[in-house]
Amino acid sequence: AVCFSIITAIILNQIITNPYDFHITTYSTTITYMKFCQLLAVLEVIHPLLGIVKSGILTPFMQVFGRNVVLFLVILPEERLHDEKSIALLFLTWSIIEVV
User: Fold this and answer.
1) H or E element: which one contains 87?
2) Is residue 52 a contact partner of residue 44, using CB atoms and an 8 Å limit?
3) pTM of the model
4) Using an 8 Å Cβ cutoff, are 22 and 88 in contact?
5) DSSP letter assigned to residue 73
6) Helices of type H across 41-84
7) CB 26 within 8 A of CB 3
8) In the chain, what's the furthest Cα-to-Cα distance?
9) C-alpha–C-alpha distance, residues 6 and 36, integer Å
10) Cα gap 27→95, rounded to integer Å
11) How far is the C-alpha of 76 from the C-alpha of 64, rounded, in Å?
């Protein structure tokens, strides 16, 4: 949650300081954190497999796999998406969901 809290704080700060053009710098300032957080989220699938937590495997697998596909196979290679407002809002949404 700490990792996604950092992303949330960065994006909200950008929205407050530059409400009309916040999306232009959101990708460049948050992508390193987002990649790290999403790779770390794989632990949500590994922990139930190892019996560390008693929860299902399917739900975290679908969430982590889906986000990683979108992030690593759609957003990262497609540079035209990097400055889109929808990507900034997607990152904000993902982060808020993880924090809450």
Assistant:
1) helix 85-99
2) no
3) 0.91
4) yes
5) I
6) 43-50, 58-68
7) no
8) 47
9) 12
10) 13
11) 16
